[in-house]
Amino acid sequence: MLSLQSLYLKQPLFDNRIHYVVWSQGSSSMDSTAEILEDNLEKILKGEGLEVREFDSVPEQVKPVTLRKSVCYIVGAVIFNSKDEVLMVQEAKRECYGRWYLPAGRMEERESILEALQREVKEEAGIDCQPITLLLVQEQGPKWVRFVFLAEETGGSLKTTAEADSESLQAQWWDRESPLPLRGRDILPLIDAGIKYRRNPWFPMLQPVDFPCQVICQRLFLTFISSNGNTDTSDEHRLWLLMSSNYATPHPSLPIALSVNAFDTIPRAVHRLVKECVPSSSMHVHTCGILGVQHNGRIPGKTDGVCFNTLVLLENSEDGAEISSPPPLEGDAYRWHEVTNQSLRAKIIQRIKEESVLPVHSLY
């Protein structure tokens, strides 16, 4: 495991065995620890954030990411009017001149994700907007991440050809049936996702939260459910969460894995950490989706990172086989924590059962 201090000042790694002993002291201390842990888990489930202090899965030496140098973040907006028409902009770039696309563009230095979204929509479409929810995240590892929002118009007016500039030629509402030369068909699933969410939201509205991070990483809400794998009735199942045994953190915490190389997508980083914990296991690792997104970006080169709070389910790969406890872990870097709070357990199982999470699409 690697702390922020040891990562950036190149100090030795911690011996994580000490913290495991601390957790075993006194019942009152254990009760307090359990309360803090449950409170933090509730925050993650609500889409809130937690400070990123320690890293658990570090495949190689890493450095803080820098926007538009080592990472590229794209924001895109799906906006409908009262007629269910979607907002489109006509491109001014030479390589796609005259074609149509959703309002989208790269984030700039010192911007939050929401600020970038509102700026791009204003520049390209002429209107003001307010985000309703993150709709999905697309990624090609840490080098390219696109945050797609469902948003609504709050003011301004559609950009006309008389206002054409280097950002766009004009903006229009599209009924999705009339012929329109598109810059790319990759936006069609995004529009469909917006339509689906408006009709039947399948996850709670989610906005990025302001927590600084120096790298691209994910806090793993990694679960294991006992019995026959049927999650229809949460009361009949026991549930465990994978916890970090990092003694540098005063309380038990969810493990945090870094994405460092160009191909280190969210699912691959999850698989890497699981492989570290249970290298001999044949369990299936299912990355359900995202519970929250943490970003700050106010200090270029120091807070350009993003932390994804990611819900993961570890499943038995053998159909029909019953497993009453999670697979044994190798070493003492991690431990299993059984969630005995009935309400909390039910919430987690429900989110898994209903796939009530922000979708993440890895494009590799």
Write the layout of secondary structure elements.
Layout: E1 2-3, H1 4-9, H2 17-22, H3 27-45, E2 54-55, E3 72-79, E4 86-90, E5 100-101, E6 104-106, H4 113-125, E7 127-139, E8 144-156, E9 170-174, H5 187-199, E10 209-210, E11 216-225, E12 239-244, E13 256-258, H6 266-277, E14 284-295, E15 306-315, E16 334-338, H7 342-353, E17 360-362
Parallel strand pairs: 3-8, 7-17, 10-14, 11-15
Antiparallel strand pairs: 1-2, 3-6, 4-5, 4-9, 7-8, 11-12, 11-13, 12-16, 14-15
What is the gist of this entry?
With 364 residues, the chain is an alpha+beta fold. Helix content is 22%, strand content 29%.
In total, how many domains does the architecture comprise?
A: 2
Give the helix proportion (percent range).
10-25%
Distance between the termini: 28 Å
Largest sheet: 7 strands, mixed
What is the averaged pLDDT score? 87
| Count of DSSP-assigned helices | 7
H-E string: EHHHEEEEEHEEEHEEEEHEEEHE
Shape: elongated
Q: Which structural class is indicated by helix and strand composition?
A: alpha+beta
Low-confidence stretches: 1-27
Radius of gyration: 22 Å
**Residue fraction in strands:** 25-35%
Number of strands: 17
